TrEMBL record, chain A:
It comes from the Bacteria. Pfam families: DUF2849 (PF11011). This is DUF2849 domain-containing protein. It comes from Sphingomonas corticis. InterPro entries: DUF2849 (IPR021270).
Automatic annotation (TrEMBL), chain B:
Gene3D superfamilies: 3.90.480.20, Sulfite Reductase Hemoprotein, domain 1 (3.30.413.10), Sulfite Reductase Hemoprotein,Domain 2 (3.90.480.10). This is Nitrite/sulfite reductase. PANTHER family: BLR3264 PROTEIN (PTHR32439:SF9), FERREDOXIN--NITRITE REDUCTASE, CHLOROPLASTIC (PTHR32439). It comes from the Bacteria. Residues 119-271, 402-540 form the Nitrite/sulphite reductase 4Fe-4S domain. The keyword Heme applies. Keywords: 4Fe-4S, Heme, Iron, Iron-sulfur, Metal-binding, Oxidoreductase. InterPro entries: NIR_SIR_4Fe-4S, NiRdtase/SiRdtase_haem-b_fer, Nit/Sulf_reduc_fer-like_dom_sf, NO2/SO3_Rdtase_4Fe4S_dom, NO2/SO3_Rdtase_4Fe4S_sf.
Amino acid sequence: MRIVTGNDLATGDVTWWTGQGWSRHIEEAVDAGAHAEAIAREEEAARRVNGPYVIEATVTADGPRPAHIKDRIRALGPTVRPDLTLKPADPAAGSWVI
Amino acid sequence: MYRYDEYDQSIVDARVEEFRDQVQRRLSGEISEDQFKPLRLMNGLYLQLHAYMLRVAVPYGTLDGRQMRMLAHIARKYDRGYGHFTTRQNIQYNWIKLAEAPDILAELATVEMHAIQTSGNCIRNISSDQYAGAAADEVADPRPWAELIRQWSTFHPEFSYLPRKFKIAVIAADEDRAAMRLHDIGLRLVERDGVLGAEVYVGGGMGRTPMIAPLIRDFVPADDLMSYLEAALRVYNRYGRRDNIYKARIKILVHEIGADEYRRQVEEEFALVKQLGIDPPAAELARITAMFAPPALNDGGAAPDRSDPDFAIWLDRNVKPHKARGHAIVNISLKPIGGIPGDASADQIDVMAELAERYSHDELRVTHAQNIVLPHVRQGDLYAVWQTLADAGLAEANLDLVSDIIACPGLDYCSLANARSIPVAQKIAQRFADPARQRELGELKLKISGCINACGHHHAGHIGILGVDRKGTENYQLLLGGSGAEDVSLGKITGPGFSEDGVVDAIERVTDKYLEVREGAERFVDTYRRVGMEPFKEAIYG
Ligand code: SF4
């Protein structure tokens, strides 16, 4: 699948395109298919996202899993500070990255 | 310490307001990201993996307690309760909101701090010796010169858009504690026939093409130094490669045309520049120098009682002699075993500020090895300082040992990274956690970068590690034999790379081999230089 990601302009938070808007949670990301680039352009022009780009991801039972480790780290948070990730209560969350 | 005059303060205040307006215009959509990005970068604001990152300048690594407290306050109020001290003696915050960035800069300005020129193709924060003003081996305090260069380079109209970023280091001692020759320009203050001047090295650097700066002039009298720097930068600004980002640093220019030709051009330019009156009048230099006058260090108190064994170990490892009798230089390690190199919590930053105010004449230093220094401590106060540090988790006695690792933020934070640096540092520190084993290995400088940009100085590590991307997985190259000190050298790659765990094992095989072949009290790097790469290669790859 092809998903669109970027950062929130004001907060800098990593965000994912959900089909309707932007979410901090990659589980809510949708396959943007051939429209991905156009979505990125339109959303950036409307300042709903900053620096959007399109990535490849695989579909898993837990939701989309980005092909590249960099985007998996973006999706979760720093692997060396589990307390600062989006899943602070899940000590195993880091293994999803690797 | 240097104190802002009305000019310094007004330009910093004006810059905050200018940036506030720029941020407002970006948030309202008046300007695009393409237009805004260079403006935010000029104010130290990057967009990193998880959020905006703000890099705050710590000029030549010197801070007072009030400034350090402000760094803690910013960590608490605007970030997530911690900061990361960097190899450029600065501090970075990883979780900044764009809308709040102007307020942060306004708060910093109240304590004479800013983020100006911590990014972009300009002259960056000047680095220096963390023991400046306290080291017995210095000919002068290098900081008045570093400050002068800071003033000269701040908003320098000719040098705001150089071909590439530009880093200058100033030291004044035989021992090089600032990796001086791995800077674009390295200055070492020396005295010749009673006249103060500088050796000028140009064209060093790490990154993609590491180079050790050659000596361009063996003595520039202090009275000519600013003119000489202006000439050195002008030649670079004119002929540096703007067509290729990978060849744009001054090291490539000096290398391509040769040190002799570069020197000739600088001398020619210098003859013209010298007429312009750039060098400071004696009164101005005296004004700046007076602000760095050494504190009155009289009674150092009784020599510390060494009966507490943990304290004695820390004393031997992290405390260095001061030029004033009865005083000492205290190194605070930001490398607890298993911790994140260079990170400190807001509470720890406050503790260090408090210690500086109480025991170190209100001074702190940030080191390029990502540690903190209290430069002027009475020996009679050392035990109290150590107890406070120990309570705050800041008393790791590992200065310059294998667990005192330099590590860049790597792929956990940095958008340019190929691989994570911090987990590798943590695993190595844990593998060698036994303090006795570390001391047995002696001085061993281990440095890790998460990509070829080399922010973690891997070329200059006795052991260096470079993270690379091998078909989408993290892989680590191992280098041996580098040094950023006065015995400067560049590390060599051992051979094929390793996985994260594999590189930790490889390092253990290297240190085992070292213990087997070392002679006497030889340091690791000296053994390597004596026996060469082969025995280590064999130990690693079989
Ligand atoms: S060396 Fe590379 S990964 Fe590390 S901080 Fe610098 S740019 Fe980022």
